[in-house]
Design goal:
Oligomer: single chain
Number of strands: 8
Structural class: alpha/beta
Number of domains: 2
Strand order of the largest sheet: 2-1-3-4
Largest sheet: 4 strands, parallel
Radius of gyration: 18 Å
Shape: globular
Helix content: 40-55%
């Protein structure tokens, strides 16, 4: 993976691509992402017409439908501001696959390539562009495990960003487990087409996370969180889930677990 060059100066404005999963299931994570960015003095612009990055159609083998969705989204980010995405898999789709989708259309190919260079996963942006640091706040110590989606880990290389942000938080211990690098079993339509295999994969993930003694999974990918959280709840496992944006906002502001800002 080619090393990315980051801006030398902080941007004053960004677009937020909220993702359809956050919009429909975990809106608090999107609000907390906005608050984290605004905390650093950045103005956040949220185009109202945004919906999906096109990944579900793309990963299901329907490039034409994916192109239709992506084409509508690309028009929403006309200015040269960074596009911050609180999901590694959606950011990977936008950065790596949008240019491929439009490679045979000269005008749209240029637009897709230009936009892809402005796409950042949230934790990547916080760490390498805004250089955030969250001082200690009076609150209880926590032990957590990190989950990085397959797309975020392998396409965006964002596991290291999450590790760095969590490890810098006072009072937080990040515990590693033996199945951390494995898929949670969601995989978009994979969990619908192969529910038994998907269920076994997420059960292994939950058991491995619980074996560390941690009671919380933190991830920057909502679909994985929904899958892991539901599996833990159904099995009675003592494991809660929280989006990275909500976790960082909560710890940075001394909010106890279960308080304001938790998704």
């Amino acid at each position: 993976m080619q090393e990315r060059q980051y801006p030398a100066t902080r941007p004053t404005d960004v677009y937020l691509f909220g993702t359809c999963v956050i919009d429909l299931f975990l809106p608090q994570a999107g609000l907390d992402a906005v608050r984290l960015l605004e905390r650093e003095g950045v103005t956040v612009h949220y185009p109202r017409g945004q919906s999906c990055c096109g990944q579900p159609a793309y990963s299901s083998g329907n490039p034409e439908q994916s192109r239709d969705v992506a084409r509508a989204q690309m028009a929403l980010f006309p200015r040269g501001w960074p596009v911050v995405v609180p999901s590694g898999s959606c950011a990977g789709m936008m950065r790596h696959h949008w240019p491929e989708l439009f490679k045979d259309d000269a005008a749209l190919s240029r637009q897709a390539r230009e936009l892809s260079g402005r796409v950042y996963e949230l934790s990547e942006f916080l760490l390498h562009v805004l250089h955030v640091h969250y001082p200690a706040q009076p609150q209880a110590d926590e032990a957590v495990v990190l989950h990085t989606s397959c797309g975020a880990r392998r396409e965006m290389g964002t596991r290291g960003h999450g590790v760095a942000l969590i490890d810098d938080l006072p009072g937080v211990r990040r515990l590693e487990h033996v199945r951390e690098s494995e898929c949670c079993g969601f995989g978009g339509t994979f969990c619908l087409k192969h529910p038994d295999i998907s269920g076994a994969m997420v059960a292994d993930k939950v058991a491995s996370a619980c074996a560390t003694g941690a009671s919380r999974v933190v991830s920057a990918d909502c679909a994985c969180l929904l899958n892991i959280g539901h599996a833990a709840q159904q099995s009675g496992a003592p494991l809660t889930v929280e989006h990275m944006a909500s976790f960082l906002w909560r710890r940075a502001n001394g909010v106890p677990a279960g308080g304001e800002g938790q998704s």
